[in-house]
Amino acid sequence: MEKGQMMAALKERMNYTDPLPDEPHFATSDETIVRYLKSAEWKLKEAEKALLSTIEYRRQTRPLRLDCNWCHDRPGYHSMRQVGHDESGRPVIYANFAQAATHKNSVDDVVTHVTYLIESAKATMDVGVTTWVFVIDCTGMTLNACNPKLGYGMANILSNHYPERLGLVICVNHNPMFHGVWKALKKIVSPGTTAKVRLVRSLSKIQQVFSTFFSDALSTWLLKEIELNKQRPLPKSQLEFWAAPPATAVSAFNMSLPHDPRGCPAYIRDYILPFQRLQDTLKPSTSPLAFWRGGRAAAGGAGGGRGGSNSASSSCSKGACSDEGAVVPRHRPHPNIVDSLFGVVRSVSTSPQEQAERLDAMSGVEQSEDVVADALVPGNGTVAGIADVEDGELDDEDQVEEDDLYNDFEKRVDDYAKVKKIIGDQ
């Protein structure tokens, strides 16, 4: 059977399923059909089984309505957030361990937060864009983050219910702890998934990878954000990454506007500022969540593709579709950015224990003598201070630490994987 015939056959079978309440065309859209057939290596029965499973999953969880209460209750609980797009239009999602609260995460809170982000990121994707890019800054990584249940749980959701969505993962500033964890995790992650992960540590390689995939503006933003997040202790401006820099603040180095930790300039322009202007006209009658869900009579706003348009086949306004029964949310930034713009974000207070954990997590971070975000390396125009250590280059002490962590984590992964199936490609 030709691929076109398989697509038609799978779509015909999906026509007999009950439409999802918030997204009635999800199961029969060409984009969904192709992703599931491709993930199943164009085996019709396997693709049908996987898609039916996802339909039931989305019916039960209603991911378009998910919100991360962990972040609302404790601002900064998760640091992962969309910060821009790569040169191909794929959403770029950045996370830094030093910025996140050091609570011990659960599978539920991690899955909920990431689902919130990736579902929201879809509203910023133009036609033909189907995958995401993750930039993981391992600065401040703690043992609490090294839980096989977290890695397996998240990878399992992505593999089973978001197949062919993971485009690229770039890990920077990884330490011996990460090496030990990664070596063990590769035992339960498919080769197709691991092939999408790039580990880079040296300044030259970070620059090279960033320049390959990102615009100059996004590369510059990422380099500055990474450098600022290496400060000890982390300043309030980075700890509260959901807050805009003061409107009157100007860099003393070159009289430019200060770094905005919420995202690169294009992301702020296209998705933060439009919402900020619109929500000012709606307060206090509209809650953040109700506003972001959109609706049949929405009056436009931030979302619905990078240029603010929605490419659905029916008549759609910016971020909200008029299809009967459909709920197409506008793009939602990190929950604490939303709270901050609505003036309802809670104040952050860290306990002495948490402060000690943060400092301990940052103890191995290599740092320039003077941490200044706008300091440039003469001749190459990039931010200074990123550890210039070649990939895989570890001294004897680090190698021993990596081996010890690997042996310990490998046992934990093996124990956990005994009752789990090896996951597929994402």
TrEMBL record:
<feature type="domain" description="CRAL-TRIO">
    <location>
        <begin position="83"/>
        <end position="236"/>
    </location>
</feature>
<dbReference type="Pfam" id="PF00650">
    <property type="entry name" value="CRAL_TRIO"/>
</dbReference>
<dbReference type="InterPro" id="IPR036273">
    <property type="entry name" value="CRAL/TRIO_N_dom_sf"/>
</dbReference>
<feature type="region of interest" description="Disordered">
    <location>
        <begin position="300"/>
        <end position="334"/>
    </location>
</feature>
<dbReference type="InterPro" id="IPR036865">
    <property type="entry name" value="CRAL-TRIO_dom_sf"/>
</dbReference>
<dbReference type="GO" id="GO:0008526">
    <property type="term" value="F:phosphatidylinositol transfer activity"/>
</dbReference>
<feature type="compositionally biased region" description="Low complexity">
    <location>
        <begin position="309"/>
        <end position="322"/>
    </location>
</feature>
<dbReference type="InterPro" id="IPR052578">
    <property type="entry name" value="PI_Transfer_CRAL-TRIO"/>
</dbReference>
<protein>
    <recommendedName>
        <fullName>CRAL-TRIO domain-containing protein</fullName>
    </recommendedName>
</protein>
<dbReference type="InterPro" id="IPR001251">
    <property type="entry name" value="CRAL-TRIO_dom"/>
</dbReference>
